Hints:
With 103 residues, this protein is an alpha+beta fold. It is built from 4 helices and 5 strands; from the N terminus they run αββββαβαα. It has helices spanning 6-11, 55-61, 76-81, 92-101, and strands at residues 22-24, 28-32, 39-44, 49-54, 71-73. It has a 3-stranded antiparallel β-sheet with strand order 2-3-4. The relative contact order is 0.21.
Amino acid sequence: MRFFSTKVYDEELNLPDKFHVRYVVLLKYTRFTNKHHHRIQGDVAVFKTKLEFQHIHVIRWGQDLEFTSDMVIVDASFIRSHRQVLQLVLDKSIRARLDKLYA
């Protein structure tokens, strides 16, 4: 989740053991967005958003393909019990829709 905002994650979210546990959102890569395949679009279903990633983003944040014991999946039930996670969605109109959805 740090990909969305390291500042919000580090300074504003009050998640249990947040510096030792990896809180992750599921991402599905959907298509390349340029002809050289240097950028790829990903769908973050839990945040109802699509994002474009550069190669470095995939290397740093998006190459884990298996769930490990140090991960917690951020899904709808997690968001309902930790509403503060929506602060990571910086687009206010999307955040407002999610706030209603996960109420």
